[in-house]
Amino acid sequence: PLFELMTGSKPTLESSIQLARYTPENTAQTGWHIDLESEFTCVVSLAPTRHQGGGTLLRPYGPAGGTVRVPPLPKGHGLFFNGRYVHHRGAPVTEGERLLLVYWLMGGRK
C-alpha cells in the first residue's frame, strides 16, 4: 500500500530483501552507489539503540548537487527513495552495530 500511495502504481517485483549489519569496521567500505536492479529502495531501522553514528547519505541530484544526511530513524521507520537514480551510502557507524532491513522494488503497474 505504501508503494502504491507514493508512486501511484503497484510494484511488479520485489527484487531482493536483506538484513544489513553495519559496524565501525565495515561502514567505511560502503561507497557511493545506485541500485541498478531496483527503482525504489527502502531502508528500515531495526535496532537504533545498538549503535552510535550511522544514518543515510543521499545525493538526490548526483555528486555535484550536494549531500543530504538522513539521521538514524526510530525502530520500525523506513526511508523510501528511488535507489536507481539517487546516489546513496550509509553514514559511518562509530560504535556498536546498525541493523537494517533493506529491500528493493521494481517498477509498478497502474
Explain what you see:
It is a single chain. The mean pLDDT is 86. The chain has a four-stranded antiparallel sheet with strand order 1-9-2-6. The protein has a three-stranded antiparallel sheet with strand order 5-4-7, with no helix packed on it. A two-stranded antiparallel sheet has the order 3-8. The protein has one helix at residues 2-7, and strands spanning 10-22, 40-45, 51-53, 56-59, 68-70, 78-81, 87-90, 93-96, 98-109. 15% of the residues are buried. It is built from one helix and nine strands. With 110 residues, it is mainly β.
Task: Jot down its keywords.
single chain, 110 residues, mainly beta, four-stranded antiparallel β-sheet, 9 strands, globular
Order of helices and strands: HEEEEEEEEE
Q: What fraction, in percent, of the residue positions are helical?
A: under 10%
Distance between the termini: 13 Å
Structural classification: mainly beta
Number of beta strands: 9
How many individual helices? Answer: 1
